[in-house]
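== Fold encoding ==
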Amino acid sequence: MPKQSLALALALFVTLGGCTLVPSIPSVQQPTPVVESPSPAFAWVENLVLAGQVTAQVSTVASDQTGQHSGCTATDSRAQGHWASQFYFLIGPDTWDLVVTVPHAYYGSGTYKGTDVSIQLADPTKTKVWESQSGDVVTFVVAANEQSGTIDAQLTNLTDLNGQVHISGSWTCSP
């Protein structure tokens, strides 16, 4: 009965793990979940109040996305001779855009008024835009660190000159 002995030996060999007749199934690894890290811009602390045709309380900037990055020239502004900042923030689920520039003769920390500063607020579609005009009362203050300050501005609706938005409060930024 050598055939039975051979069959028994083969069965023991397989059972004890010498080999396997069942193909191994590769383990399926679950994809690592992608967790977006907060933008460094999230460290920016805003305390802005919008009133008029747009009403909101803004406390932080929106996280960076493609084509949308909050930033400012900050301490580089003096060497460049102008100040520029762009703040993206949420009003409800929508991302709005606030641009502040001191386009000429930026001299460092201090108070900029009237046409020395340009401020523009745009809705997410960029079809509704409010901007500081020559008759609007505008005050933009840059603190000594050139990364914070205050704003108090009346902006005119560019499609409805009777419509306005008032923005006031404090802002921070980092380059």
